[in-house]
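To fix ideas, we give here one paired sequence and structure record:
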Amino acid sequence: MAMLILGLLIFLGVHSVRIVADPWRTQMRARMGEQGWKGVYSLISLAGFVLLVWGYGLARQSPVVLWVPPAATRHIAGLLTLIAFVFLAASHVPNNGIKAKVHHPMLIGVKVWAFAHLLANGNLADVILFGSFLLWAIIDFKSARQRDRVAGTVYPPGTGKGTAMAVVGGVVVWAVFAFWLHGVLIGVRPFG
C-alpha cells in the first residue's frame, strides 16, 4: 500500500503545483523554458504513475475488503464512465459546446470516472486510489475556475460539429476501453 500512496503523492502532487504554488510554477517555467519545464514535469509524472500502478497492482494481490458493492453498481459505473470519456474527449476536441459550457471537461471527466470506480469497488486500495483522484479533481476544478475568473477567461462558443465529434469520439474510445482494453490492461472485464 505504501507504494500506491507514494505514487499518488508524486503523481497528484506534481499535478497540484498550479493549485498550491502557481507563482513558483510560473517562475520555474520562465527559468527552465517551456520545454524544460514540460520535460521535468512529464518525467516526475511518469515516475509517480509507474509507482501508483505498481502499488495498486501489489495492493490488489492482498485485498482489504471494506464492503462488497451490489452488482448493479457495475452497470451504473459503466454508464458513468461513458459520460467521463465524453468529457475527456471534449477536453481535446476543438470548438465543442461541452468545453464552452463547463470550461474544464477533463477535470469533470476525472471526477465522474473516480466516482464511478468508487461505486463499483469496495477494497481499501480502490478507495485510496479513486478517492484520491476524486478529491484532487474537485480541488483542481475549483482552482481552475477561480483562475479563469481572475484572468477573465472567456471560452469560445462551441459548434454542433465540434460537440458531435467530442461525443462520438468519447463513445468510441469508451467502447474500445470498456469492452477490450480494460480487461487487457487492468485484468478486469467490466462487461464480461
Q: What stands out?
A: The chain has nine helices and no strands. The chain has two domains: 1-62, 65-192. Residues 1-62 form one domain. The chain has a mean pLDDT of 95.
